[in-house]
């Protein structure tokens, strides 16, 4: 006799796990499902068509069925992306076993468990969940997000279930963050570093490079072992069901003209996208010359490059705010990227204040901005922000010069000399700047979007390279 859907619900309180109709996990998917209960974070990532999104939504439903009153979020950058990928399949899976609220985009189960959709379109949207508790968060295509969005959402992982969880064998439920992703996208660099190829500075003393399928514990700031995480690689060969129903899919991926993207999507190669074809900067080069020990003690000149957005709405471009410096008496001149405070702001005054605050933090002697669009207004906003900083005690000492530059050449021509300096190993990033580096290594001259962080960087580096050093050195600040 066929089991009813309500038998599945009853299994939520039975030691044996339920089986969803029409869902039989592939071996790699089952490995991921088992590892989730041993770690705090899991990346199931790699090739397109590896069955990652399919596994994600089925695993979320199984967790909701087997755990009482859990709160589960399925996260992606935009709501249209979420709906396109998961709405119809998840609704079909939950048909008869959970109540679907179309307006709220939630699925509520008889045992009190809830699955909801979450979109994080802009940096700052994660702050909408300040008081929310989640037992599990599933990040689909995590490389679409900024690291600050992901790490903040991790702080929302805390079980509100006060009873004893038999499935977890503890009071409350075991919480976890699960990410699926292809090895591409603006967040590619931080996801790769967090799960696949940590830098030496990310590892504990004597800790070797993590291996796939093997949980490892990155060190906390005090050196003690942190929460465990694991990487489960995904390849197209892991999904025989897709290959059987779409025998031409492999050849479609093989026919992609972009060799790097072909390796990323066909083979799940996490090294393939270190530089997008046509991009002027290479992540491999940036990493090779990164200043892991910080900038020199004495700096010759410190500049903040400023590229304000022309409008300030939810769909506006970011405002680029990047600080860079030159070392004292070095030939060839060595340059250091100190900080990136780019982002979306509520208006020109807020953006100018953020620029001035960064200039104060790094003891900048110059703020450089482009005059092509609203130059006089931009300068007025910066000067007003400086006056407020002095009045409020946020700025002490000599004020920086505020210099406008008129861009006579296109973005690519302005960026090319800077990319040459990078290629020669003269520019060093003081710490990781994931959003900036993602823009640098993915923007191509034929791209329609405006690279605001990159523009601000180019203004700062160009000024440093062209203007030389002032008479008196600038003392480096310990915190930026």
Low-confidence stretches: 1-6, 8-16, 469-480
Major sheet strand order: 3-4-5-2-6-9-1-10
Could you give the distance between the termini?
67 Å
Instruction: Bin the helical content.
Output: 25-40%
E-strand count: 17
Average pLDDT reading: 85
- Structural class, by secondary structure, is alpha/beta
- Please state the overall shape, judged from the principal axes of the Cα atoms: globular
Count of individual helical segments: 15
Largest beta-sheet characterization: 8 strands, mixed
Rg over C-alpha atoms, rounded to the nearest angstrom: 25 Å
Summarize the structure.
The chain has about 475 residues and is of the alpha/beta class. The protein is built from 15 helices and 17 strands. It is about 35% helix and about 20% strand.
How would you characterize this protein structure?
With 480 residues, the protein is α/β, with parallel strands linked by helices. The protein contains 15 helices and 17 strands. The strands form three sheets. The chain has an eight-stranded mixed β-sheet. Strands 11, 12, 13, 14, 15, 16 and 17 form a seven-stranded mixed β-sheet that branches. A two-stranded antiparallel ribbon has the order 7-8. Strand 4 (106-108) and strand 5 form a beta hairpin.
